[in-house]
Design a protein that fits this description.
Largest sheet: 8 strands, antiparallel, barrel
Order of helices and strands: HEEEEEEEE
Low-confidence stretches: none
Structural class: mainly beta
Mean pLDDT: 86
Strand content: over 45%
Shape: elongated
Length: 158
Amino acid sequence: MKKFMMAMLLTAVVVAPAAYASPSFDFGANIARTTTSGYGNSADFGLTAGYNFNQSIGVEGGYESLMGYEMTLLSVSALGRYRISDHIHLLGLLGMSYWTESPTGKYKASGVDPLLGLGLSYSLTRAVSIRAEYQFVPHFNGLGTNLNTFLIGVNYRF
């Protein structure tokens, strides 16, 4: 899986200049709710930072604090956008997540797992957009469950 993700990242870096058009950076903040079977719910907050190669392709790094589980989750993802209308974009994420439970947590576990995401973005202005998203971490390594997160956030592009 690590070789696959490295190959995917390398491909994005090599192919992106060919699709070069209006690159930009963005920063976002979100609130979220995470559920897992057998472990209950968690209220969360997070931050994202990304680089957009063009209007359709980008990369994004994320930080989520899963307070109810006493965990943090760091992620790196390829981000695809599909324009539905002038203001609405369909989003797709494919990446990897590293999660770790705090030392005072119940299991003191950590792991690396794939991350999949699907969402919608609505542009309020050229720089500001709101985003609703579902993220899925399958087979949450070491805990034997899936991680399901619903996020609502604001992004600023500069």
